[in-house]
């Protein structure tokens, strides 16, 4: 037995019974002998079952009697070595870390399991072909057992512009298998799941969360075995023949991240959040408020208009200006030009210098949009090299958005795109790159004819790393049709993600709530869009749009030239408010509170950030729809310093319709002082709000 422990979590790894298995994952055990604990948990032999109880190994083994989905699937020529059984050969212990090597001399395979426990438990497996013939790898999943009483799963579904939506499913029998074959970590199926006893909430119940840091295809298998044990496995989804290990070659799984909380989803999220913030490359400087030109001008790159837009952006407090699609090649619309990453003489006859210099003169950083993984058939690159597309010979390729995927695993394609991006960044004073990826992989074969998603994802990572090493002052955003590639894998190579293409403030509440389950606000782009949302057609007030966006990494995607002076003043006020609270928002503990429901839909959403020392907090309550009562429920705020006194005041004017209430709670006008115990116990009565409006509250701890 081996133990890994922190102040709040302990993991016990069984290395005695063949392939390593996690025997325990939960609250610290204290002075407990793991061997006696294992004896206490020994299961009886079930009538009609085999004579052994198969371990719930990190890489589950069919050959050991495991009755569920095997972790490793593959074979050698002729179908041999299809069901390996490993034996631990070496264990290396480090500081809260274990490296376990296991071998199968018959199958001629080596398996290394690496575990590290810090803010989260990370698990990674490496498979090595130690034989003299090739090994065809079909699947390598790493998994964690969860307790028998974890009978409910919270996972995430969605689609374009409606990402990160929570779905709860019973976890009582059978298999929940979620598979993604889109070539990116996808809006439809986020590689993230939480397990707990039915009804676990934001501040209640034991919760275990798992996230796979994979930016390509992936799969999750959550399974209840016939004997009642529960297992959750994650791994890359490999197409047939996609990974073939020649003698001596290795395959490394994406990292699995695991978080535990004894007190609900919000503290479980903190494990993910603290891991992200502990990374050496995590952004340490204030996250600039940006303006993006897309929904302001689309493909109309008129220099005078772009300059005027920059003037107004600087006037309202923006710190970064991002020139979106339309600056290059023949890209006057979305039908041509992708792949030709040179400045268009039509759109910018004097080059990019005039707009870049103007932006810098206003004190803002300059950013630019690219989509290097794509190519339009109507482009110089494709006409010269049609074989560089990620397609399959002999078949008519499937287009999406008038474009194909460019095979970056092809040396020529990689070198060409790398050269174009280096040229762009070396000869222009650019501080930010919006890296888009706007379509799925469909029948995407590499140069040898085998499936190409695995190699493409690896090539994207490599290209990002090369650019960041060459241009360390340039930040990169992962933008893939919004939330189409949002995961810890891509965040090892980028500086933020674009949460969703949807700037509809009503839709954004559910999207941002789901994303906050594992990502911190400073990595989540959230923009104030125009009054009428581009994706839904809904119309919202500026107050609702601004309050919805300012809790994350704020941006503006709106034609500022269309605003009145009064609107510009109000927008500037919200930008200033965000910048005032930015250290709190981007450094505190994200908190969420169980939503108030109207039937099966949430009618209200409360969330915010507590300072890590609990000296202050910023809390947003949004009324999404009409509720089932005439006035909202009380807002209870657990997790504050129970003994401290807090002054609660409205941070901005309350957004209230006269049709809702003629009189509001008296504390709204002058604020109120309450203890943390009061706020976490009986709470605070919320004002009556119109649907699609919000109130922002600031809590400040008084000197004791």
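Q: What amino acid sequence fits the structure above?
A:
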């Amino acid at each position: 037995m081996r133990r890994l422990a922190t102040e709040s979590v302990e993991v016990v790894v069984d290395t005695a019974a063949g392939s390593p298995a996690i025997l325990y994952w939960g609250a610290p055990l204290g002075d407990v002998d793991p061997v006696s604990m294992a004896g206490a948990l020994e299961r009886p032999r079930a009538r009609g079952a085999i004579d052994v109880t198969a371990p719930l190994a990190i890489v589950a083994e069919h050959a050991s009697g495991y009755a569920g989905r095997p972790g490793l699937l593959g074979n050698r020529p002729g179908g041999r070595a299809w069901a390996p059984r490993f034996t631990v050969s070496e264990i290396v212990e480090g500081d809260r870390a274990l490296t376990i090597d296991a071998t199968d001399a018959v199958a001629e395979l080596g398996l290394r399991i690496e575990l590290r426990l810090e803010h989260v438990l990370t698990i990674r497996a490496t498979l090595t072909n130690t034989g003299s013939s090739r090994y065809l790898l079909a699947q390598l999943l790493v998994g964690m057992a969860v307790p028998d009483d974890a009978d409910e799963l919270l996972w995430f579904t969605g689609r374009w512009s409606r990402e990160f939506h929570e779905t709860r499913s019973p976890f009582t029998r059978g298999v929940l298998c979620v598979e993604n074959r889109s070539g990116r970590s996808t809006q439809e199926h986020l590689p993230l799941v939480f397990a707990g006893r039915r009804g676990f909430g934001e501040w209640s119940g034991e919760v275990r969360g798992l996230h796979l840091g994979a930016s390509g295809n992936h799969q999750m298998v959550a399974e209840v075995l016939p004997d009642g044990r529960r297992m959750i496995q994650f791994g890359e989804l490999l197409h047939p023949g996609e990974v073939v290990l020649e003698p001596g070659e290795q395959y490394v799984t994406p990292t699995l991240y695991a978080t535990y909380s004894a007190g609900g989803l919000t503290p479980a999220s903190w494990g993910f959040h603290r891991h992200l913030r502990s990374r050496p490359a995590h952004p340490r400087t204030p996250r600039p408020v940006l303006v993006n030109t897309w929904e302001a001008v689309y493909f109309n790159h008129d220099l005078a208009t772009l300059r005027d837009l920059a003037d107004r952006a600087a006037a309202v407090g923006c710190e970064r200006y991002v020139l979106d699609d339309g600056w290059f090649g023949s890209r006057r619309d979305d039908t041509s030009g992708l792949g030709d990453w040179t400045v268009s003489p039509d759109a910018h006859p004097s080059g990019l210098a005039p707009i870049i210099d103007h932006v810098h003169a206003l004190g803002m950083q300059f950013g630019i949009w690219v989509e290097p993984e794509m190519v339009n058939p109507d482009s110089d690159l494709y006409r010269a090299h049609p074989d560089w597309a990620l397609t399959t010979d002999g078949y008519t390729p499937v287009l999406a958005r008038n474009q194909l995927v460019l095979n970056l695993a092809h040396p020529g394609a990689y070198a060409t795109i790398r050269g174009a991006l280096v040229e762009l960044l070396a000869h222009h004073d650019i501080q930010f790159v919006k890296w888009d990826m706007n379509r799925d992989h469909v029948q995407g074969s590499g140069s040898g004819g085998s499936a190409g998603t695995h190699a493409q994802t690896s090539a994207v990572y490599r290209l990002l790393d090369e650019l960041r090493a060459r241009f360390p002052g340039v930040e990169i955003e992962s933008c893939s049709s919004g939330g189409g590639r949002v995961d810890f894998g891509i965040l090892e190579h980028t500086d933020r993600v674009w949460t969703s293409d949807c700037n509809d403030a009503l839709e954004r509440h559910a999207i941002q709530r789901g994303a906050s389950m594992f990502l911190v606000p400073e990595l989540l782009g959230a923009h104030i869009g125009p009054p009428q949302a581009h994706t839904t057609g809904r119309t919202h007030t500026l107050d609702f749009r601004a309050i919805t966006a300012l809790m994350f990494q704020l941006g503006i995607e709106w034609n500022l030239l269309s605003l009145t002076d009064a609107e510009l003043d109000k927008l500037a006020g919200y930008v200033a408010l965000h910048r005032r609270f930015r250290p709190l928002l981007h450094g505190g503990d994200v908190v969420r509170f169980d939503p108030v429901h109207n039937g099966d839909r949430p009618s209200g959403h409360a969330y915010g950030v507590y300072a890590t020392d609990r000296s202050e907090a910023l809390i947003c309550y949004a009324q999404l729809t009409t509720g089932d009562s005439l006035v909202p429920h009380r807002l209870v705020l657990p997790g504050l310093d129970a003994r401290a006194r807090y002054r609660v005041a409205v941070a901005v004017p309350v957004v209230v319709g006269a049709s809702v209430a003629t009189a509001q709670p008296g504390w709204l006008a002058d604020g109120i002082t309450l203890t943390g115990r009061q706020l976490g116990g009986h709470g605070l009565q919320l004002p009556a709000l119109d649907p699609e409006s919000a109130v922002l509250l600031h809590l400040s701890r008084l000197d004791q």
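Q: And what stands out in the fold?
A: The two ends are 48 Å apart (CA to CA).
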